[in-house]
Amino acid sequence: MIVRIMGEGQFEVPDSLVDRLNELDNAVLAALDTGDEADFRVSLAALLAAVRAGGTPVDHEVLLPSEATLPFDEATVDEVKALLREDGLIPG
Fold this sequence. Notes:
Blueprint: E1 2-5, E2 9-12, H1 15-34, H2 37-54, E3 56-57, E4 68-70, H3 77-83
Parallel strand pairs: 1-4
Antiparallel strand pairs: 1-2, 2-3
Helix pairs in contact: 1-2
């Protein structure tokens, strides 16, 4: 799966990491639902960290279609909500 972090670039994420990313995505969604800014920040940071740690950066010269687009670290709640799809930030 190709995941784009806005302002940073694309990462090729192995299929073995997708379930974990969906768990972290669900935590972001739960924080958004409750309006808990602190949980939102922690959950978003964990999701982005998992993509960076488990994914392989795609060369900036290569542009591939992204299956998921994640916000940058300091994104606001409203900016993240604008990126949400029916199944969250991560498909599946």
